[in-house]
UniProtKB/TrEMBL annotation:
InterPro entries: CARD (IPR001315), CARD19 (IPR043574), CARD_BinCARD (IPR042146), DEATH-like_dom_sf (IPR011029). One of its GO terms (biological process) is regulation of apoptotic process. Pfam families: CARD. The chain crosses the membrane at residues 120-138. Signal peptide: none annotated. Associates with BCL10 by CARD-CARD interaction. It is a single-pass membrane protein. It comes from Melanocharis versteri (Fan-tailed berrypecker). It is found in: Endoplasmic reticulum membrane; Mitochondrion membrane. This is Caspase recruitment domain-containing protein 19. Residues 38-96 form the CARD domain.
Length: 179
């Protein structure tokens, strides 16, 4: 999308009341007049900085004038707007259109939220199940001789493991030790 079309799209937003104050418009006009490449001549700059005309009229005339001059002039206006009123530049309707994400692109913030929406209790529950299964597998392995130590650990863990689960594990360990 060319800068002239973007400026035409943003014109109503920029000329609406209280978006740009007189000082910011004067800074933009001076920048377009003084910075290389010179976009506005001295006469044009004086015309657009005339305090006798209303701000709305001067700004509308400036935007129309820049659109007639071409894409390069409109691009320099956007650069001046970004330098002198960055928040307004970021809020432009044409900028919001440019910022819309590609529908095929993955939104990392949303994806991060989806992966982490379960909370810490879910994590602790999964971790406890995994640790219990690892301990169970380790104790059931015939090559290891740690059943006595495992019984002592499980015997002192009523806080960590619920009483019912602990009793089941103890019964299982006693059954294994008999065999």
């Amino acid at each position: 999308q060319s800068y002239c079309h973007r400026l035409q799209h943003d014109m109503y937003f920029l000329t609406s009341t209280s978006r740009l104050n007189e000082q910011v418009v004067d800074k933009i006009v001076l920048q377009l007049n003084r910075v290389y490449p010179q976009i506005l001549t001295n006469e044009e700059a004086e015309k657009f900085r005339n305090p006798k005309a209303s701000l709305h009229t001067r700004l509308s005339d400036l935007l129309k004038h820049l659109q007639k001059k071409g894409d390069r002039h409109c691009q320099e206006f956007y650069r001046a707007l970004q330098i002198n009123a960055e928040q307004l530049f970021n809020d432009l309707p044409s900028r919001k259109i440019l910022k819309t994400p590609d529908p095929t692109e993955i939104d990392t913030d949303k994806e991060q939220y989806v992966l982490n929406d379960r909370g810490p209790v879910f994590f602790l529950a999964c971790f406890s199940v995994a640790a219990g299964l690892a301990l169970f597998w380790y104790c059931c392995n015939s090559e290891t001789q740690v059943i006595g130590r495992a019984r002592r650990i499980l015997g002192f863990s009523p806080i960590i493991i619920g009483r019912h689960v602990r009793n089941i594990c103890m019964l299982y360990l006693e059954d294994i030790s008999r065999n």
